[in-house]
Amino acid sequence: MQQVIILGATGSIGKNTLNVIAQHPEHYGVFALVAHTNVDEMHELCLSHQPQYAHMVNADAAALLKQRLPSHLNIQVTTGAETLDGLVAANEVDTVMAAIVGAAGLMPTLTAVKAGKRVLLANKESLVMSGQLFIEAMQQSGAIVLPVDSEHNAIFQCLPETLQNNIGRCDLKTAGISQILLTGSGGPFLNNQLNDLPSMTPTQACLHPNWSMGPKISVDSATMMNKGLEYIEAKWLFNASSEQLKVVIHPQSVIHSMVQYQDGSVMAQMGNPDMRTPIAHCLSYPKRITSGVEPLDFFKVGQLSFVEPDFNRFPCLRLAIEACEQGQESTTILNASNEVAVQAFLDGKIRFTDISRVNEFCLTKIVSHSLNQLDDILGLDDQSRRHALEFIAKC
Question: Rounded to an integer, what distance in angstroms lies between the CA atom of residue 8 and that of residue 116?
Fold first, then answer.
């Protein structure tokens, strides 16, 4: 039986992971659940899944949860960064679901990689911020990293087994691959008039046409920054050059991504837009288990369409692709500035179209940094957030 720890248990990925695990109690046990401040959600999850540990990043939340949990369940409530590292690296843990959103997920995800765990990677920011360090740590520890994002999981499924076993070191050309095609829905504003975009509200931006996601990822989908971050993640996961990566808008979200081979073949992974499919794939790889997702009904799908991205509509996607080509410094800055900008938009402090303006401003503030260790990356992340707040104060 695999013992699983879920980082970001109260989020969409975390709850979907628990849904899949609950369907296979003979194969998976919940060692620990980790959340930030959501005591109500964590309390419910603890009652339903009875982990050995419940870890709250916020100390006050941990104290409240400890008060509310029945003592007979014997669930240990913990808090603190060092304690979290200890849980992630514990000998009992086989699998780590890394699903904390944003830069906050970097440290525990890296801890899991360094401990040589089987890491189900749903935190793309770990690679966006520290790609080289992450891949090197994976190679040194022997950790197995499996991509959970629906797009990267689709690509993974379309690769030959030799490349699946060499994540971070793929030789796409030798394997006969010409391009990786990342699909994206285009979000809720794909067909809006450009001059209407400044007035779009957070509520409208979070109304994704196909997927049910948290507010940050939903806004990133509306700006297509999410696809830009996935572009950067794909570079590191599959050792891909810019010539080997292409973004394709596919509004129906049925084809989750594709791999184009040199002989003209295109391999596509298809399915209903439900994260339980890639989660179940990663949990059971290389085997297959039921996920609870309805089979794709081709007679209900109708037409599948594809559109080239318009950078005038999606300037954040352009910025991400350019940052990827510029290197680690730019992608670290972009990730930090975007997190601040999206939160400012959700808080009503800036307009929807200001998100890209904040990101572009921060990228102009680049000075030469040495990013040879994690502290360098965290320092640059902090500096970029300050630049973003400086710009937002003037909006």
Answer: 20
